[in-house]
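User: Teach me something about this protein's shape.
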Amino acid sequence: MDQALNILHDEEGIHGTTVIRGIAGFGENKEIHTSSLLNLSLELPLIIEFYEETEKALQAIEKLKCRLPLKHIISWSATAHTLKIREMEPKRSDDF
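Assistant: First, the predicted structure itself:
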């Protein structure tokens, strides 16, 4: 995980990344794996998620594939629905 984060952060300059651990699931053998807060199963996957412009994301994915023994890489197009900084600021009485 550290190597992937270093590639995304230091080498590719990805703006933000989140690492998530699966809490339940099953794979090809259909054996169900679960975890609790007391026992985070190491058999469950880590998901490294990032959002970036298409070309930059594809470049980062290629570098991850070349440098790390990753079993699965999944990507899809997404749209960021975020507020601009000005929209997040509280309204002042003189703004009305």
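Now, about its shape. The beta strands are 17-21, 24-26, 32-34, 46-50. The chain has a mean pLDDT of 82. If you'd like, I can walk through any region in more detail.
User: That's plenty for now, thanks!
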